[in-house]
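Why does residue order matter? Because the sequence determines the fold. Keep that principle in mind as you read this record.
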Amino acid sequence: MAKLTRKRKQINEITRPGVALPLAEALALVKKCATAKFDETVELALALNVDPRKADQAVRGVVTLPNGTGKSVRVAVFARGAKAEEAQKAGAEFVGADDLADRILAGEMNFERCIATPDMMGVVGKLGKVLGPKGLMPNPKLGTVTMDVAQAVEAAKGGQIEYRVEKAGIVHAGVGKASFGADALAENIRALVGTVVKARPSGVKGTFVKKVSVSSTMGPGFMVDQGALLAEVAGPKV
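Structure:
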């Protein structure tokens, strides 16, 4: 049996497998376990009672975290003329049309959000197999196909994140950094959970959120008392 390191022993002493904790307590433990040499991301996992294979249960959307994500977001914008200038002034790192599409097809994918004006979707369409699997395909429902590219760029850089349910029915999302105060992390989590709850598909019966947990990039996960959390964000009947 492999010998446990001192750090691992310390973590084992404070983890409480199977115990659902109040959000504040869970976050305090996450921060305590975030001992890496970099500022770890605090991640939220929501296990939902959905079947992502069904189109009407593919939970997806955007939410603006009130305290931001703690990381810089690089944005690519497909636009021409005045709209391209607006995107550049708003801070987009990559702006273009066919030239930008060619760069992406050549493997240049060092951005986290992709925005397009409606007239550029013909150009963007040929990138579906490249952008789609990475969740970067512009989508009008997510506000990433828009004529207001400046606002979209500012939102992406100001704490707006996309969330989507994975094949296993889980939504994973970064909700800040371990260096954030616990109150700021909790506020971000409530914003995300509240938005996901509002996106509940009409065909879902019974409990929607089955399990909630929080962790840091390199740390263990801690279960959160989802009943108490949901009562905070959406009322006690959820």
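The domain at 20-69+160-234 is CATH 3.30.190.20 (Ribulose 1,5 Bisphosphate Carboxylase/Oxygenase).
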